[in-house]
Design goal:
The protein is mainly α. 88% of the residues lie in helices and 0% in strands. It is built from 2 helices and no strands. The two termini are 18 Å apart. The relative contact order is 0.14. The mean pLDDT is 94.
């Protein structure tokens, strides 16, 4: 499994999410409630992807350890 490639692609997605976050934060037409409503899916998406990457790394590490034994 090419974990580095997966991590690179997820980092590209994170950069796009950051752009979306900044556009929401800079939108002065949104009040605090609307801003929070727009931010929740972005925050959740980032957390899900971060957890997925951590899981992929753990599975890869365990797989390598199993091959070494």
């Amino acid at each position: 499994m090419n974990v580095e490639f997966i991590e690179q692609k997820l980092n590209e997605i994170f950069k796009e999410l950051e752009k979306e976050v900044m556009s929401v934060l800079m939108d002065e037409s949104l009040d605090k409630k609307q801003t929070n409503l727009h931010m929740k899916p972005l925050t959740s998406t980032k957390q899900i992807l971060t957890n997925a990457l951590d899981s992929i790394k753990m599975v890869d590490k365990l797989g390598k350890e199993a091959l070494d034994n």
